[in-house]
Amino acid sequence: MHLWERSLKIATVTALVIAGAAAPAYAEEVEQVVNGGFDNGADPFWANGGMTIELVDGRACVDVPGGTTNRWDAAIGQNDIDLVAGETYRFSFDASGDPAGHVVRAITGLSVSPYDTYFEQSPVLGGLTHYEYTFTASTSTAQGQVAFQVGGSPDPWRFCVDDVSLVGGVPPEVYEPDTGPRVRVNQVAYLPDGPKGATLVTSSTTALPWELRTAAGAVVARGTTTPRGTDVSSGQNVHTIDFGRFRKNATGLTLTADGETSRPFDIKPGAYDKLRTDALKLYYTQRSGIEIRDDLRPGYARPAGHVDVAPNRGDGAVPCQPGVCDYTLDVRGGWYDAGDHGKYVVNGGISVWELLSEYEHNKGSRKVNLTIPESGNRVPDILDEARWELEFLLSMQVPAGKPNAGLVHHKIHDQAWTGLPLLPHLDPQPRELHPVSTAATLNVAATAAQAARLYKPFDAAFAARALAAARTAYDAAKANPALYAPVSDGTGGGPYNDDKVTDEFYWAAAELYLTTGEKRYATDVLASPEHTADVFGPVAFDWAVTAAAAKMDLALTPNRLPGLSAVKAQVVNGAEEYLAVQRQHPYGVGYAPTNNVWDWGSSSIIANNLVVIAAAHRITGKDRYRDGLLTGLDYLFGRNALNISYVTGYGEVNANNQHSRWYAAQLDPSLPHPPAGTLSGGPNSSIQDPVAQNLLKGCTGQFCFIDDIQSWSTNELTINWNAALAHLIGYVAEDC
Ligand code: 9MR
């Protein structure tokens, strides 16, 4: 121990308060690590990756070899650590890195297969620094491990560690998010002639005065707040502020009420034009199978991922999971789903649908320049981008002559989960095709049918190929209507399980009808139980729930389906339901999940519910839908309980540490943050990941979120979520 040379820095995930006097009594604090001060040699610590532990000045040091791929390729650790589920631990150590700037992945996890990680932090090292974290164990085991993973650097470096400690029986952290001023606004912008609402968090139950100020401090509008009582979604006592009568263009405005001044915001036309493009540009840096060019995305260049170059196993000839099939498929290309390297047909399907639907119904989307390799080829960029995924979706269809021909594999991903960070081209895991499913098959039927009508003017051969694939898929699904992807298939990738496919059947039949006009598809549309059902519940549509997508396309694409006016009326009634929810909601959110249990990816659900309101506006032309749409937008950009914009790069305080293996700046400063225009999943009441479970236990609705890269259940990015954002913002930019 060398206390005299410690630069004391308490590194924590975020600001935290340790419960003080009021804390209940805890079990005695017990040290779990043996010889953590290295006072008696190095045992029982081990080192791998060809490293030898040297003791220097009472510290353990290793020369880390350069040129390894993964963090875990070189590590020091100690096994046989006891962990007890529900018990809170303080994990601390002193560490240094020479040269400075290297990252250690400090973990507590399982020392045997499947090597689960229970807690991890990845500080960037320099001179000897004390690091200290608190977490609550989610699992009991006698085979726990404390380890310092130091691999993954191209160059060699030296790592030293001392005073390794894991103490059990400590009080749990009380996490308090920094929510800034209590006046909550859309931190990006309001439109001059649109509605303008804000929310005040206060203990007052009576109306309070508010003032709107310019950047120079001049008061330009005044009024009084409307008390709204306790907001169910956050548990806060709130008032609303309506400053819609102020219609002048301005930047840097602020709202003041109850002694608090909001974060700055603008009132200006065209405020969402850039985001319209940015939200779509994300797809290029999510591409698999192609090099990402620095001239097109400065700071985001990377080699092509999964193209059969080591250490990748490649997607050029991917076998099935054992026993599932005896062929391989070339499934290169497509978009990586999210922060992982998996590619899933049902999520690709809804994402492609939403981009193609934007293309079909929003004429302005056709001229948006996405600065992609295909830009300038006379095909609208949005179609070029969507085709990158469509070709992948088509490649997942079982070829003629094989068992299950015409059906579509549900997904392709790594055999086991990988850690963060990990650039796509460095993923060493074997890739596997998972079984076919009815839902995946119908996703291909729906989107390939949609593609057939939209790409025809640009590439008739592709359109014909897509239509043939769609017909084949649809017939194969009808012959195999109950092949469901199970929830249990979640190792190395997400399950995307779905055992209700009447909605996918309806969607596929609708798209095939819209493209071909054929009676047999019309018959299936009209016979579907979804056709007359009210499908506009708390979640209008997403990867698992697709009937609303069909209804919106039927309502908006010219066609001769009998009784079409009833479909249009359903969409408009759905929008009315979301407006009714929004009116009740003091943050203006048209989403009220049952029992206030916020879904995984709530930001995208809120955005998609607004897409239904946009469809009603398109159908009716009525201002009430435009106003509701614009009011609903504010939540995403900061008018919310956490005072955060869920879109990277937009709003003064915005989510920018979304869970990703390659936009992983929070773990490795040499990597970028997610690109501007990336939507975070947002509050998820079920908090499935350890970071959220540790810090957000017992959270209420809107508070179930943390902008931490390891919080994959509250803060991931995903192709379908950005599709919702892109479609919504495309509408705002073009039609509002
Ligand atoms: O977005 C998906 C969410 O609706 C599901 O509840 C969740 C669990 O099945 O999975 C989410 O999708 C993840 C996928 O399984 C793997 N890639 C990342 C996706 C977003 O977190």
Overview of the molecule:
- This protein has 736 residues and is of the alpha+beta class.
- Helices cover 26% and strands 19% of the residues.
- Strands 2, 4, 5, 7, 10 and 12 form a 6-stranded antiparallel beta sheet that branches.
- The N and C termini lie far apart (65 Å).
- The chain binds ligand 9MR.
- Ligand 9MR binds next to loops.
Strand composition percent: 15-25%
What is the CATH domain class of the domain at 272-499?
Mainly Alpha
Query: Average pLDDT value?
Result: 95
Q: What ligand species are in this complex?
A: ligand 9MR
Level-2 CATH architecture of the domain at 272-499 = Alpha/alpha barrel
Uncertain residue segments? 1-23
Would you tell me which CATH topology of the domain at 272-499 applies?
Glycosyltransferase
Please give the count of helices: 13
CA gyration radius, whole angstroms? 27 Å
Q: Could you say which overall geometry the principal axes of the C-alpha atoms support?
A: globular
The separation of the N and C termini measures: 65 Å
- According to DSSP, the number of beta strands is 30
| Estimated structural class | alpha+beta
Largest sheet: 6 strands, antiparallel
What percent of residues adopt helix (DSSP H or I)?
25-40%
Topology:
Blueprint: E1 16-18, E2 30-31, E3 46-47, E4 54-56, E5 59-64, E6 75-83, E7 88-98, E8 105-110, E9 117-121, E10 129-136, E11 141-149, E12 157-168, E13 173-175, E14 183-184, E15 189-190, E16 197-201, E17 209-213, E18 219-224, E19 226-230, E20 237-242, E21 250-257, E22 260-261, E23 265-267, H1 273-285, E24 318-319, E25 328-329, E26 343-344, H2 345-361, H3 381-395, E27 408-409, E28 411-414, E29 431-433, E30 436-437, H4 438-454, H5 460-479, H6 502-516, H7 519-527, H8 547-556, H9 564-584, H10 602-620, H11 623-636, H12 690-695, H13 719-735
Parallel strand pairs: 15-23
Antiparallel strand pairs: 1-13, 2-12, 3-6, 4-5, 5-12, 6-11, 7-10, 7-12, 8-9, 8-11, 14-16, 16-20, 17-18, 17-21, 19-20, 21-22, 21-23, 24-25, 26-28, 27-30, 28-29
The structure holds ligand 9MR.
